[in-house]
Amino acid sequence: xxxxxxxxxxxxxxxxxxxxxxxxxxxxxxxxxxxxxxxxxxxxxxxxxxxxxxxxxxxxxxxxxxxxxxxxxxxxxxxxxxxxxxxxxxxxxxxxxxxxxxxxxxxxxxxxxxxxxxxxxxxxxxxxxxxxxxxxxxxxxxxxxxxxxxxxxxxxxxxxxxxxxxxxxxxxxxxxxxxxxxxxxxxxxxxxxxxxxxxxxxxxxxxxxxxxxxxxxxxxxxxxxxxxxxxxxxxxxxxxxxxxxxxxxxxxxxxxxxxxxxxxxxxxxxxxxxxxxxxxxxxxxxxxxxxxxxxxxxxxxxxxxxxxxxxxxxxxxxxxxxxxxxxxxxxxxxxxxxxxxxxx
Length: 344
Description:
Layout: E1 12-14, E2 20-23, H1 55-60, E3 108-112, E4 118-122, E5 132-139, E6 151-153, E7 165-173, H2 185-190, E8 194-203, E9 206-207, E10 225-229, E11 232-236, E12 239-245, E13 254-258, E14 283-288, E15 300-306, H3 317-322, E16 325-327, E17 332-334, E18 337-340
Parallel strand pairs: 3-14, 5-7, 6-10, 13-15
Antiparallel strand pairs: 1-2, 3-4, 4-18, 5-6, 7-8, 8-12, 9-11, 10-11, 13-14, 15-16, 15-17
């Protein structure tokens, strides 16, 4: 179970004058900003256009308290949000807003690494290579995010343009900006702030509050992080097993080779039939081409489906590459590797 403090974290750290450098899982303040107003503010410089949200108006509005802010209903398994994982009466996937335990099937899979070593990865369904923007706020002249400010997103699962993979956008706010005054992407865009798209990518699936995914490669934090969406607080996981950068405007891909109990094209075949596993075991012969720390690793996998007649022969990347490939580009799926070399 998660503790009540972990949801106040921000996760982007900046080092050096060059700007954004690394994902760090930094803790934000223990409490939301206490001051709702910026002391000493006047109406000097205000325009007469009431329809425009100027910086002065933004600074005079109340800072929001994440603890009491509303929460949207997050549904990763609706027809709008899901591709391989869409809720039906038969599969019993969690309902809208219901916490998800990602540490159980069908959300975690045992596969093989390029050398045949066992690996384990989460299944967060199909994601595109087009990242969504996430906005991280910095006081003018500062190289660390505004203390206590939650990051801001403009889409959630089911919305057009949603992606678990986010391109970090640095937003510069005035020195006297109060944390959590900005709580929506619209406020960022309407506030006439300097917004810089960086090349940093982060893998942060938005999930219902209370969801759990306790496995990580290395020392990655397993708790939920809070963010703002349209004045509401959302919750997301962070996966930092590898640093990711935008490549030609896209999320980079790495290959994975998979087989199903029934081949695609057969009745009930493909993903609906489930991954083929060893007898009496949950061990698949799904083979990833890279591991965290390898050049070219990415948790967004380009799926190649091989003939399940070759299942027994596929034990590593070399044998997977020699199998009969039925579809070399079946989908791109978010499956961060969380452990390698397990013995049980």
